[in-house]
Queue: 4 jobs
Job 1
Amino acid sequence: MKLTRRHFGAAAMALAAAVSMASLASAADIKIALVVKSRGNGFLEANNKGAEESAKELGGVQIIYTGPTATTAEGQIEIINSLIAQGVDAIAISANELIGKMCMTLAKNHLADGKGDFAILFATTTFANQNTWIAEMKKQLKYFLGLNLATTVYGDDLADKSYREAQGLLKSQPNVKVIVAPTTVGVLAASQAVKDAVKIGQV
């Protein structure tokens, strides 16, 4: 079975857990819950589709796809508690609450004395999950007093636009020492822009 082709994001974790549990319980008993940030997100719906396809190949695996109507940690916690009470075998969570703090921690760790300017290069304003991450990062600013968010730019998940946006922020914000880009397109574009600006080791 070529399961890896259909493992998307959280689905991969959940199904890996299911396979490891198969030796402890009969396949017919395995129930795996995917708790997403919120319902109606196209990327997360694709995770569910991949999980369902792989579950069908495994046989005897039931996927429970669920999430809150709003992107809140409290909504996820309520759902998780309910799933635990139901006795599901595995829960894979696309968490709302920790990404903002992790991004801020990583930015701080790359700055001298944990202080300085950073910028955000995200994909697009229409990505609900990334808007949530930005909001959570801004909430965390009060706990990272040495960090200053200089600007936020969007590359629309396009390599050329992301590169231009990264170039532009390096010129308009010369004090920026960290670019936070939680999108693979943005990471590559920002890296190339830093290299071309001869700022490797500085940004």
Job 2
Amino acid sequence: MQKKIEAFNKNGYWIEKDFFSFKELKEMFLLFYDISLSMHKKFLSRSSKFKELNEIKYDKSGIKTLDKILMEIFRKDKKLIGEIYDTVSYTSTFLRFLSNEKIEKLTRKLLELPNNSSLYGFTNRVRIDPPKDQRRTYGWHQEVFYTLPKSKYLQTWCPIIRNTTIKNGTIQICPGSHKEKIVKQEWRDLKDRATQIIIDTNIVNKYRPLDLEMKVGDLLFFNGHLFHRSGQNITDNEIRFSMVGMWNTVGIKDFRAPIPKFSFRGLSPREYYIDYFKS
């Protein structure tokens, strides 16, 4: 364990190989297939041409079928991909996958926290990045302004469903850059794009970027100050699935939990109430 902590402190990251089991990964695949197929039937075709959940397998053929479903949804309405993001994030399967006790234990060790320290998960999501879609592709950034202010935390990242490669846009990092602490950066709000908080190019150029090609099952832990970004998915029809999230330490002075706010895509509870009793 001490070697992991030393490598994490020196380089700003650590990759834990074969962290997740095939069973866990299969459950995540079936979760995505079920939700995506349901979305396809709801918005594109009730009589779907795709296999039902009980007929699909977690193999190359099954993954390609999932790609086809999601690409048809993406072409129909890009916002529906966001709805799949949000649906997955509160399912029992995802929460069970995310709340793996091994993640807790290793996070505490890498942050050098007491064994029973409480951790707060923030913006834990599985990203879906179709080919050539850069709406949520970020430039070089640190996570410090994307998470809870003044917090002590680390970030996790890993492939889901399939391996991540340079071609499908795996994560890129600048090893050792976390030692810069908080560097000069620019906040950009761009139309139809995710907020960009970009590090000054002159600072990034001091480092040699590294593409981390990773296999499903591997889990990356990295310091919140580490320079990183997603690559570009330049494949023709291969979606990149990746789980991202942050683990914040509850026990520090400046920790304040944010107030969850939900917006309803369909009827709000009040609208449902009014509609139900209007007669």
Job 3
Amino acid sequence: MTKTNIAKRQDIEKRWYLIDAEDKTLGRLASKVAKILMGKNKPIWSPNVDTGDFVVVINAEKVKVTGKKLDGKMYYRHSGYLGSLKTESMRSLMNRRPEMVVNLAVRGMLPKTKLGNQMIKKLKVYRGSEHPHQAQNPQIIEV
């Protein structure tokens, strides 16, 4: 009889990874980052436990998008008041806050639960090549 091992919080070892987003396609980058945040790259993965690692993404302003997404893709936000729906194109959001574009792309690939909210907190995205996580000694990953 085989046993199924379920991950426990004390068994999980959290690591830090560094990904350079320069000249990477946004969707492919986001899917790789989401897989690491969920912990699906580990043999100890469980669907009900956060087994993922921390991910630092640098050079978010140099990420590529294909097709006509820069002008065609719109981001929406709503304050909850009547008539307050705001729309913004990907081009203007990339100019204003490129780290938000990467963050939203990864967030869309994570579970829409409390566990997904825990996972997105382990994502750190920065506009340039500088980041304050040198002390964690992140391991560089090629996408």
Job 4
Amino acid sequence: MCAEFINLTPENLGAEHLCCIIRSKKPHPGVEAKRRWLAGRLREGHIFRKLNAKVTVFVEYAPLEMAWVPVIGDNYIYLYCLWVNGGEKGKGYGKALMESCIADAREQGKSGICMLGAAKQKAWLSDQAFAKKFGFEAVDTTENGYELMALSFDGTTPKFASNAKRMEIESKELTVYYDFQCPFVYQSVERLQEYCAENAVPVSFRPVDTLEKAKALPCVFNNWAVFYGGKFQTVNLLDGAGVKRMIK
């Protein structure tokens, strides 16, 4: 396979598309929010590697110590997202991106790579069956079926922070934790705010805007997490129909 991949850098961040939501002219608020988020992360070792074309083919990862997730471990890489969409599937791009992530981790002398998964594949999480083909396996779990998947190079393993396994908060109203690592989050927040206002659903939005807040979250998290009735519900982005089902 002959393909050119490029990494986003502080120098090209403003000009390159971000794969998930591709716009050629009109600015997209979610994409611009993601650019601002990335601007602070790239200098921390965050990698956004993509096919050099206007398609959805990319991988995104960061040193675990700097990753905005309640996962802890020494010398690991955290894999946020690996996505190949539409007509680009089946061309070997996913394999090439995963292999480049693994090679990068080894070159940096890392102990391994980890990612969020689940006993049953969930939307908005990278394909764990695909990851297992490269040797990823579950190394920690939560009571409600989420898993920390890891590919260990040296026998060590990361784990969920103890606070991530609480899965409870004091507030009983609909509560959403979010950051702008995913460009779809911006519009999801707007639409959820609108639905809750129109339907008199009490809701609290809690932006996760620092690394410290992310590491201290009371649940698993990849950029979004929902609570209702004081109990953790999902890491899936939520719309009005999902809220209606949840509060029923």
